[in-house]
Amino acid sequence: MTTTRFAPSPTGHIHVGNLRTALMNWLIARKAGGTFILRLDDTDRERSKQEYADGIQRDLEWLGLTWDRIERQSDRLDRYAEAADQLRASGRLYEVFETPTELDLKRKKQLNMGRPPVYDRAGLALPDEQKAALRAEGREGYWRFQLDQQRIEWPDGIIGDVSIDAASVSDPVLIRADGQVLYTFASSVDDVDMGVTDIVRGADHVTNTATQIQIIQALGGTPPRFAHHSLLTGPQGEELSKRLGTLSLRDLREQGVAPEALLSLMARLGSNQPVELRMSLDALADGFDLSQFGASPTKFDAEDLWPLTRERNQHLPFEAVRDRITALGVPDNIAERFWSVARQNITRLDDLGPWWALMRDGAAPVVAPEDEDFVREALALLPPRPWTDATWDEWTAAVKETTGRKGKGLFMPLRKALTGMDHGPEMGALMPLLQQVARAG
Ligand SMILES: Nc1ncnc2c1ncn2[C@@H]1O[C@H](COP(=O)(O)OP(=O)(O)OP(=O)(O)O)[C@@H](O)[C@H]1O
């Protein structure tokens, strides 16, 4: 059965780049009727925080990207220890003692000699007495995985056939001196144990994938299908980072971005398919095709979310906004009418508030000096309440007859006098909702 996962580290608020990964994996599982796992990579105890783990779940739930199963790597430490023993027993895990400074020196020497800075496997040849002597000096050993130095190849779902020479890659460190298992290892153990069949992730992981394919094989597992999508940057090409909180989902939600808008953009951005608003995840899954995505870096501009948010909000049925409208204090008998008039003039649902304030309180009229006499004359002709759908037409016809004005010169000063603005809902529909006559006049 198709099983995918999204495996963020809870070290900050997830951003749109992380969402690209989450959404692609979610859509693959949904399309195949498979399982989507949310896996919190929380083995880094210093940087992982419960509030971020909660935040990730809140962000995904807001978008409807719910999971069939949740896993925390911090619950699986015994299992990683067992898997490490398995690799030690098969001779694939070896202890090393170099300090970061020593490694740096080695790298510099290699580069000076025109050689690639690949770990020289000095630790592999250390006899037990020397290891004991290093420990006696107070050094602590940590553990590297011995790569099989062949080419590692896989057909990537996005970037095509990949072939990496394992000899050009350093044997990865899997376990630190303090015993912390590193991402490369924990995630390979998890992917085997959890039966993950498909992994989509950022192009920052391509080298990891090469080493993980060998780790998974050494654990007796079958490597999943891999695909690496391009990394998203900000509109100016700036990097996104969980730590800095750039373009976080939390901020976008608080700014009033509609979930459907964000999902519709993310499911197509960087692909050959056009971005179109989709009101459900199933509709998004229908047209989703990994092979349509390109490998080149992709810019994300949050401004693109607003036209989609507007389109989505304008599509909402009254029932979906009833509570919000009631909360504004709009009386029940005019709530539906208020929605039908205001919806065409909002982007965010929060924009409903100012429209209701205008209808409830009226606005300070805006009158150009050259229109002062005209507006005074017009307001004197304003029919008594209640105003109906016909009031605007009747009133402007009367004003036209009396003053001889027509067209924009007639309508615009009246709109500005009643609403204080030069734009807004159609005046015919708005007038019955205007609770107050304009404040001055
Ligand atoms: N800018 C980006 N564009 C697309 N995908 C990204 C981007 N940054 C991270 N990802 C993907 O998000 C997934 C989760 O990764 P991870 O939790 O390590 O996020 P991160 O933002 O790289 O983390 P951090 O900033 O904390 O180092 C990975 O699959 C990674 O490839």
TrEMBL record:
InterPro entries: aa-tRNA-synth_I_cd-bd (IPR045462), aa-tRNA-synth_I_codon-bd_sub2 (IPR020751), aa-tRNA-synth_I_CS (IPR001412), aa_tRNA-synth_I_cd-bd_sf (IPR008925), Glu-tRNA-ligase_bac/mito (IPR004527), Glu/Gln-tRNA-synth (IPR000924), Glu/Gln-tRNA-synth_Ib_cat-dom (IPR020058), GluQ/Sye (IPR049940). Residues 375-434 form the Aminoacyl-tRNA synthetase class I anticodon-binding domain. It is an enzyme of class 6 (ligase). The keyword Nucleotide-binding applies. Residues 3-306 form the Glutamyl/glutaminyl-tRNA synthetase class Ib catalytic domain. Its EC number is 6.1.1.17. PANTHER family: GLUTAMATE--TRNA LIGASE, GLUTAMATE--TRNA LIGASE, MITOCHONDRIAL-RELATED. This is Glutamate--tRNA ligase. It comes from Paracoccus contaminans. The gene is gltX.
